[in-house]
């Protein structure tokens, strides 16, 4: 799972010239060993780790079933309680009732009070503090990533540790708060709650408790439903309002498996995915996708990649198949087609594929359309074959009607970390716009792990990317820094996109695993046909190391007694236990200055006309004000393009709102021209997707300024809400 990344970009004056730099990430505890330093040969077999899956009888560690919810006997597949129409299918003009605003996940609002003419007058209406920040002595893992929802008279959000909160939309006054009691030990790579879900019950009459509900999936793997009016648990849901999602998962420890994305509810079925901490071991907990009844919490079905014909819960002494591709991104539900579109990642052990089953290879790094009645895939579209670059699918897909020759075609926009954007028919997964298989590098010194000779390219859509790296692209604060980066480039293997992994030397991964579009996804205006995307240009410097070398580097999986958070985790170095190799991953940067080796920009904002598939405008996103060498801010207001995480929104008023950048700003842009209209300095990094709503005749814009530990932006607990000043 991937979930997000790092780095701040800087511009500093050198010889009267502004020279951008990047990556204010805390450097990994170890860097790629490089040529002559990697152990090879039989050392791969000399390891303290076994090549066996954990016993199905191994107990889960204390705290994994956080609320001590009784499991009960294994359940057989069933169908959900018939559902009523949900507000997200046809949102009220004033509301933002779902993570992506509507069931289509467009991130488009029909509000038009804020326009290019008046956006520059935006002021803070209120700031609400969630209270969720690292306590003294705790390692900072915080990155809230939250997009609130607004329905009627309530602004609903969650803290980074899954407390559920209802606010007054005009003042930010807290109306109620449900304490979900998530412990620090349950935080995986990141303390994040991307959002909550609003659901109207079909079996509970209006005016009764839990007719309208708020649902959240937690970091410690629970589903929690509370009443939308008072925040009290819905007693008829699961076990007194909660469902234990660790049932059937087998051996695990707190923090290994977690939910960070809001689960869609499709025709009465809550569809649940989860992240599995990257880089730990081949036989990590399962990436199983499951359905639960939205009214009762009753188990409905499971899609378990290596148990494709078994849709019930595992029998006693068994568990869901381990190490299968997990899905950590926000899914998209299609009530009309009866499908949920699941963005998948890799099998566990991202950078080594020899131990993967054929079934895993067919569905990794793909969009999988699952039938919500049966739990069976209806179709699969793969974006990377035999992925060993961590190009897991981080973005939520967007539904729209594509203008076909015989009328509108139900379509799906699928962004990727590669910067390839695929447009598919939702009914069968076939490309609507052309896709071709192109030759890919296959040379590698990794034994018995051949690469795919071709990879898919979306030739019908503009690529969100730049040409392959060249030595002349190397950058630096001074000629010495540039020379250092040129030497580093020469030491590495690089054959363009999909350069295969190496043991004996580092290889360049470009786009990096935070390239292109990540979890912020895109925004789409169906009226104009304009698609808005912010994206990254961030190469990585990787190297496989033998098991002996991994042991020497202290790379241990999270469930090992010797594991320490500083020795490897979801990003950077990883143990990849149960395989012959560990992995060392670092930014392609100058380790001394923490400035990127490739020339800027490192982040971009692009508008695409979906009628013609042409770029309307494009420019760097993010300034140098809060970034610089050694992580020091330059305070220079130069727009040079910084790495970014979090998505855009677009409004009928013709304004785009996006934060995401490492300059700690929220920005407003003119949707027609791309001109920046306004910005404001946030109290923390804006690594979240904003939203907008109207209440009592006034339009508001909200952004969670929670910061991000790995992007090294300031962590805060502030939800910041803006509006135009009242007219005199």
TrEMBL record:
The record, for CDD domains, names: PQQ_mGDH (cd10280)
**Comp. bias intervals (Polar residues):** 26-40, 441-457
Q: Which residues form the signal peptide?
A: 1-24
Ranges of biased composition (kind: Pro residues): 71-80
List cellular component terms (GO).
membrane
- Keywords in UniProt for this one? Oxidoreductase, Signal
Pfam families according to UniProt: PQQ (PF01011)
Q: Which GO terms describe its molecular function?
A: quinone binding; quinoprotein glucose dehydrogenase activity
Q: Its family?
A: Belongs to the bacterial PQQ dehydrogenase family.
The protein's name: Glucose dehydrogenase
Q: Which organism is it from?
A: Acetobacter oeni
